[in-house]
Amino acid sequence: MNAIKIMVNGLPGNMARAIVQKALTDKQFDVIPYSLTGPEIEEKTVVIENKAFTLVPPDQKKHFIQDHKKWIESAIAIDYTHPTAVDHNCQWYCDNHIHFVLGTTGGNRVRIVQAVQKADICAVISPNMGKQIVGFQAMLAYAAKEFPGLFEGYSMEITESHQKGKADVSGTARSLIPCFQDLGADVHENDIFMERNPDIQHKQLGVPRLYLNGHAWHTYSLVSADQTVTFQFTHNVNGRSIYVSGTLDAAKFLHNKICQGHRNLIYTMIDVLKGN
Amino acid sequence: MNAIKIMVNGLPGNMARAIVQKALTDKQFDVIPYSLTGPEIEEKTVVIENKAFTLVPPDQKKHFIQDHKKWIESAIAIDYTHPTAVDHNCQWYCDNHIHFVLGTTGGNRVRIVQAVQKADICAVISPNMGKQIVGFQAMLAYAAKEFPGLFEGYSMEITESHQKGKADVSGTARSLIPCFQDLGADVHENDIFMERNPDIQHKQLGVPRLYLNGHAWHTYSLVSADQTVTFQFTHNVNGRSIYVSGTLDAAKFLHNKICQGHRNLIYTMIDVLKGN
Fold it and tell me: Do A236 and B230 touch (CB under 8 A)?
């Protein structure tokens, strides 16, 4: 099998860098030494594991594709750029027949989906590339649909811990609130307890020091009205490796779909999880 | 609505007693003051909340039903007798057109199902009457079916704590092993760690003293190969109230089915959970 050609966009950003680092060690991938970047980035190149990546700012995208169209067309773009760049980049992928995996949030999702459906490409689009987290969300969505009111009368506590810089409440925790409500638990979005204090994170929760600057810990606790029954679900993620593997799995999945001749289709991580 | 007539069999056993206690406080139920009991039981009556229950040993079942057939026929039997008595009791329910909820384990399940299908009755049969636990098992079974290999490469630890007298490994924990295996986790039945030491249970795990003699605590931990991701699922049950409510919910569900004219049907707790 030929290696899967990928173009990782969003360097020198941390997610893009982590994906490049991992893909360079994996023979299944052939990483193109170019990366779309933001207009504010001053560097021209980024070196990762002795390989130089040329950064392509927005005003050079047109010129870049003219020079490399044939090469890039057979690649899968992996997008970890910036929420504000998503609309333009996705349009660029569509215009230039570049299949893509979109890990960046933001952008006009409806328009992106429509653009892919008109272009002759396929894409994996997901707000969360952590396969196991997406699987957990799907499990709860299933239970909420099949067993409404299962946790009727249960009270609920949700706590999440993220790096100090994260201002908003965990999107993953928020995404599960409607499920828990359908399951009958007495819980609301503003009940989510956010921990942002690194000292408490390390000493009380046990977040390793190494990951104080990049972690996503979530605990959902359900307690029966008479306090005799406790259910607790926890998913603690340190660093980025879960998202890196999920993204590369998405690229492999997309590559298979393309080889099978599929076009104009959008996949989610649920499709990747199902693997079919 | 008329109260649902129930005959709780298995007194003076703890589960039967707990169900009677709860049902006596609930206007939706009318508890018949008789209970099938074992041949070894010497008491003739049991008094619960000032109400006397006459115990009916096996050799008096025939005589009892002759005297009370009309009354008992319109009741739902709730069976928490003894594994060795299940086959005979279920046959007795079938022979006498008594719908039943079977919470007792043991017996020849295939034969019981066949007997119900031939008799003009309905039954709820489930090895676990804890609705939320059954729901959790169903969630995992769903994930295992839909997302095989989701936790590929993850190592797993399962710990369970039960009262000192329980010799065998938790059936709930065992029932989930094939699911976790299908999900790709590296785990086997003999990896389940059993805690039976009350001192450790109280001091290390935090089981309240009151429940050292009756609890079922389970924790399933999955850790990614690179140790950066942890998923943990816990369900801790103290005492019997979760099973009591589940059983009474099963009786209500069965009552509705009977009123709707259903016959010759077996339901599980999954049906009760789905409520349709």
Answer: yes
User: Which domain range does residue A168 map to?
Assistant: 131-238
pLDDT of residue A2: 83
Question: Could you tell me if B13 and B81 are in contact, meaning their C-beta atoms sit under 8 angstroms apart?
Answer: yes
ipTM value > 0.95: no
The shortest C-alpha distance from A21 to chain B (Å) reads: 15
Residue A127 confidence (pLDDT) above 90: no
Q: Is A51 a catalytic residue?
A: no
Residue A275: closest C-alpha in chain B: B147
Annotation says B27 is catalytic = no
CA nearest B211 in A: which residue? A228
For B118-160, the pLDDT digits (tens) are: 999 999 999 899 999 999 999 999 999 999 999 999 999 999 9
Question: Largest Cα–Cα distance of chain A, in whole Å?
Answer: 69
A245 and A121 in a single domain? The answer is: yes
Same domain as B229, residue B94 = no
Domain CATH number, residue A47:
3.40.50.720
Q: Which of A166, A202, A235, A262 is catalytic?
A: A166
Query: Which among B131, B142, B233 has the least Cβ separation from residue A233?
Result: B233
DSSP for residue A77: E
Residue A26 CA to residue B189 CA, distance in Å, equals 34
pLDDT band at B1 (very low <50, low <70, confident <90, very high): low
Domain count, chain A: 2
Residues A110 and A192 occupy one common structural domain: no
With beta carbons less than 8 A apart as the criterion, state whether A219 and B120 touch.
no
Task: Please check whether residues A62 and A78 belong to one and the same domain.
Answer: yes
Which residue in chain A has the smallest CA separation from B269? A147
Check CB contact under 8 Å for A151 and B132.
Answer: yes
User: Which residues from chain A sit within 8 angstroms of residue B236, using beta carbons?
Assistant: 229-232
The confidence score (pLDDT) of residue B233 equals: 98
Same domain, A161 and A231: yes
Nearest Cα residue to B3 out of B39, B21, B30: B30
Q: Are residues B142 and B267 in the same domain?
A: no
* Cα B157 off chain centre by: 26
